[in-house]
Amino acid sequence: MNILLIIYAIFALFPLLWMVMISFKADTEVFTTTFIFNPTLSNYKEVLLRSDYVRYITDSLIVSGGAVLVSVIVGVPAAYALARYNFPRKEELAFQILSFKFAPEILVVLPLFMLYQKMGLYDSYIGLIWVYQLISLPLLIWVVRGYFEDISVEIEYAAQVDGYPWYQIFFKMLIPLIKPGLVSSALLAFIFSWNSFTFPLILASSKVYPVTVAITKYLGTDTARYGNLAVAATVSALPAIVFALFIQKHLVRGLSFGAVKG
Amino acid sequence: MQKDNLGIKKADLNKVPFKVRVRPYLIVAPSLIITIGIMVPFVMAIWYSFTNYSFQFPTHRFVGLDNWVNMLTSREFWNALTVSLLYGLFSTAIEILLGLGIALLLNSLNNWLSKVLRVLLVFPLMVAPVTATIVWQLMLNSSVGIVEKLFNIFGVYNFPWASAPGTALMTVVMIDVWINTSFVILLVLAGLQSLPKSPFESAKIDGGSAWFNFKNLTLPMLKPSLYIALLFRLMAALQEYAVIFALTKGGPGDTLMSLSLTSYQKGFKFQKFGSAISFILVLWLIINVMAKFIVKRQRFAQRQASGLEE
Fold first, then answer.
1. Distance CA A95, CA B31 (A)
2. Does pLDDT of A221 surpass 70?
3. In terms of CA atoms, which chain A residue is nearest residue B58?
4. Helix crossing, A53-84 with B23-36: angle to 10°?
């Protein structure tokens, strides 16, 4: 049984190891498929210091970070309302929000391309942050809603009886209680935004240039520079992997989307 | 009778002041307004599928069902539909089966290896599909690829991964499986962790075989999670764009021209916007119907599973 796991682990992890290895290989050694070589930082210097790659990373950070920030500000109250209040058509509304995640990206993006050009949002941070809400907001609302549902209503009653105003109950009591869910879903939303490709490919071109689109440039024009390509790939995957290690504990719970307990 | 946090019974709802009744809607409104931005272009899109709109010539006129008739009578459309469906079905089926198997293994083997792998196996999901595809390209490359060298040992040379019509679909499906099996593993692990302990304890006393326990206990209770995995994977795989785009841009020939890629190409390369929209609306329709069906099954399985719990 262990052996089956190991075989799958090799399939899942070897490509990442290989990517990192190539990123440290000099151009002369890239073509040898050996595991023993003289590691060099020349590819990293080339990509990070002598190209615009740092700018692309910054763009990705601004767009993904901005998207998650907006999602948290509007999504957490929405998740609370969907968890606590009983109101007509609540379940339909909750499903409607989730369904935005299933809309084909190309369908959204083709007409949005025209709309953005008319509104002056094409190739802008705000334009991308807005469309990224389709990735981050439904995810955040669904995960956080599950956490709110886990909190007993009784403690809210108790605080109400003690005369605390609603905003103190919400910010001082509820937010700390849902923190693990909020942090993990926000990081997940960040990762999925960071990895998004179709939206920036079509809705941005030069002023805003997230890494996922930038990396295809390395592929097209620079096919012989595998070392540089591997650096670009490694650096772009790094933030997500670091975050994944942070949220590991909550990830399994977060990804259940409240589905498991119904 | 259900109560909300204000302690109001559902039947008394009409006596509640209007101000209180609209409160939840007001709280949810900002999220809806932000995401509703998608509905505006969506309605526009339906309209444009009946016009000859092109980005080059901003004036357009109504052409009736022309785009739709042309699409349904073209070989291009049926090819794109087939590619999308094959890609969606193959990758989803493999990911669910493989993910279920690995998650069950991780859950049953409670040793150090399974604990370490629970952390590490998430990594592929964290790599952008575009990046993942590029890494695989490096590995499959016929001159510098490690996989090529591995195949050489077994006497296979220049295996045509993405460059031959016969193997291209298999290659993109393999990359999709590499990226997304982690997602299924995570979902199934979440499901396994929420299973009640008592039915398994009594099954242990009854001494049922492992297969019997899996079929009659684990699987029915795991169904809700599996349906969620199916929903998310199938929906995403049907509209997959990044992997195919980064690997072959739809080639060789039109082997990998899925509905998404065909639509993108029509819209931007050939400037036939109205026609591009009709292709992608078909995809939207398929996804919508499948999502509704799977959600219905999921809720049914959920109710059954909770019945089992009691």
1. 13
2. no
3. A114
4. 150
Which phi and psi angles does A253 have, rounded to 5°?
-65, -45
Distance CA B202, CA B215 (A): 15
- Of the ranges A113-117, A192-196, A222-226, A258-262, which one carries the lowest mean pLDDT score? A258-262
Interface test with A, best of B21, B23, B31, B277 (most A CBs within 10 A): B31
Q: What is the dihedral of CA B7, B8, B11, B12, to 10 degrees?
A: 140
Cα end-to-end span (Å), chain A: 32
**CA B106, CA A184: separation in Å to the nearest integer?**
22
Minimum CA–CA partner of A78 in chain B: B28
Per-residue pLDDT of B155-207, as tens digits, reads 888 888 888 888 999 999 999 999 999 999 988 988 888 777 777 777 778 77
DSSP state of B55: S
The pTM of the full predicted model, rounded to 2 decimals, is 0.88
Whether residue A113 has pLDDT greater than 50: yes
Contact B28 A78 (CB under 8 A): yes
With pLDDT > 70 as the criterion, what percentage of chain B qualifies? Answer: 94
Q: Are A134 and B239 in contact (CB under 8 A)?
A: no
pLDDT at A220: 61
Residue B307's CB is within 10 A of a number of other CB atoms, namely 9
Chain A CB contacts of B138 below 8 Å: 18-19, 22, 226, 229-230
Strands, E assignment, chain A? none
Torsional sign, CA B265, B268, B272, B275: positive
CA-based Rg of chain B, rounded to a whole angstrom?
Answer: 25
Contact assessment for residue B192 and residue A256, using Cβ atoms and an 8 Å cutoff: no
B49: tokens are 């599928």
- Nearest Cα residue to A206 out of A106, A107, A46, A59: A59
Cα separation of B181 and B123, whole Å? Answer: 11
Task: Judge if the upstream peptide bond of residue B252 is cis by omega within 30 degrees of 0.
Answer: yes
Q: Tell me if A86 and B4 make a contact (CB, 8 A cut-off).
A: yes
| B15: exposed, middle or buried (Cβ count in 10 Å: 0-12, 13-18, 19+) | exposed
Residue B262 CA to chain centroid, in angstroms?
19
Q: Which residue type does B181 have?
A: T
Inform me whether the pLDDT recorded for B1 exceeds 50.
Answer: no
Residue given tokens 């190209």 in the structure block: A51
Q: Would the pLDDT of B267 be above 80? A: yes
User: Does any CB of chain A come closer than 8 Å to the CB of residue B11?
Assistant: no
